[in-house]
Amino acid sequence: MSRTYLELSQDDGSAHKFYEVTVQGQVVTVRYGRIGAAGQTQTSTFPTAQKAEAAAAKKIGEKVRKGYEAAVQGQRAPRAVTRRQVSSAPSTARAVAPVLWRFRTGSAAFGIHIDEDRCWVGNQAGDVYTLAHGGEVLARYQLPDGVKCLVADDFWIYAGCDDGRVYDLSSKLPFAAYDIAADVDIFWLDIHEGVLNVADRAGRLTVIDHEDEHQWSRGGRGEHAWMVRADDRAVYHGHSRGVTAHS
User: Fold this and answer.
1) In which band, very low, low, confident or very high, does the pLDDT at 117 lie, cut at 50, 70 and 90?
2) Are residues 17 and 33 in contact, defined by beta-carbon separation less than 8 angstroms?
3) Domain parsing of the chain, residue ranges
């Protein structure tokens, strides 16, 4: 078993947090949060120990590039969470949200995913753009059909495509990871504990583990399915007749 413990603590108080990665065989456990707190934990299982080590090294490298450093747990004292005092008063001015930046995708933009490092945007022409948080283009991928949804966790980034496939964008070149159904629009994706959940236009819900094994697939009660969400209790499938929770 290997364990890497990192901390990022800034004197101005803007950051005081830890990031811990533990690898035990094929299992990678990530724990993160404010220094001194228990934090949150996420566990993922990989097909081989080598893939688990590679995924862990990738996440550690990302944190080091952001300024995290190796530390000894318990040496830094916790800090109180400072909350800004906010006072409000009625305003006669018209509320307008400030525009930070705009980016023209060239076609209708549907799929959007945001993480700490970047913004992923997919459009109806099959383009997937990776943008910095300032709006600068970092990369561009071309998929064979429209992209309506993007989802990611600590290790994977997936795009649902109108050709009925889910593409893996985690590598340098995208590839078709899962065939859901021929020529059916993938409307929504969610990923929980390494398990991918897929809702498609035909109303089906498909649940797949990361070893490319279909756990199960079934039709919804409605004609279309727009939404899927998952947690430790169930997979929640939103369709044209309502919501169904599957255990």
Assistant:
1) confident
2) yes
3) 2-70, 109-246
